[in-house]
Amino acid sequence: MHYLKMACGFVCFLVLASNVWSMSHWSESRGVYDDVCYLRQAHLFQRFGLRGLDTNLSGDDDHYLSAKLKAIGFPASQTPPCHTLMPATNKRVMQYPPGTGFVLAAFPEGFQVIPLYAVTTAIIFGLALLGIYAARTTPSIFLAAAFGCLAVYLMINPTKASYSMAPTMVACALAGLLTARFFLPGQRHRLLLAGLIGLIIGLSVNFRLPNLLLSTGYLLFFAVALLWSRKIETFLQGALFGAAFLAGMAPTLLANAINAGSPFSTTYGGGDVTPPDLSFGIIWQYVADMQFVLLVLAGAWTAAMWRSTRTAGMSRIALVTAGNLLLNIAFFMSHPVFTPYYTIPIAMLSLWSLLFASLMQPAESVDDVPAGQAANA
Predict the structure, then answer these.
(1) CB–CB of 260/86 below 8 Å?
(2) Whole-model pTM above 0.85?
(3) Could you read off the pLDDT of 316-335 as tens digits, one per residue?
(4) Do 284 and 185 touch, CB atoms closer than 8 A?
């Protein structure tokens, strides 16, 4: 079994090597407006430090943005993309939260995208190896290896579509690992784990604002569990999760206050702030996309875990994952804008949680525990 794990790890390494080779040929000037704006965000942090949270277009006095847009043929007479006029502050500011620009700023200007993707892909590879190492049976080794190779491959397609997705994928994988550990029977550090999960998901909001929705299943679980059990442990776990979640997204709240006039005012505009509207056209776009395969896989795995498990912890993971999937799918299927990566974060958070839960479950089954006792998590 040791040699099988080594062989599976080597296969994942080959996928990693293939990814890094492909990434090494990427260009930072591929003509995508979002790319230019994320790089401008990184430029502001490198130039002004934390004052780079202020993305007012008037701060482009060194003409970094205008030069980038000119290089991709964007008409100088038009309003720069990705920047929204904020009535409260009378500023035209970048619509994105600051996290993606912040991590890009860790690398030298002109060579930021390749190292960002290489580093985040290496982290995903490391977590895939952890899954393979944790597997205790031949089928579970193959399961961990297959998913690990898939997760590493996804760091190119569709993750390449948006720079915000690379760090988001790492956050989803880490949160999935901690979620499995949080519900593991006999876990003695649930308070710490609840806080870490909330913090990581909160930090992910700084990369993509829709990552807010990744918290919904957890918040729903803690609310129902508290109403069911009314135990102080459950209250403390939920409170710490919520407090850590807010702490994690503090940079976005601060950026909103600076750019939009209030921590809770969005810097997004256009279709992104349109009220939900169920459209079969949008639904069909998801059904015809690879995202749908991942969502179906996550849903089927969740249902199988719920039906087959004999441990309370596994039941609770299935409940949290099901709630998270349903709420996220409901939002994006009714969102008027489609992209090839919108539902990837919730699919990967769910799949990583289910994978590590399957690998870490006790070898011996325990007595059945009613789902309603989830409050004792």
Answers:
(1) yes
(2) yes
(3) 999 999 999 999 999 998 88
(4) no
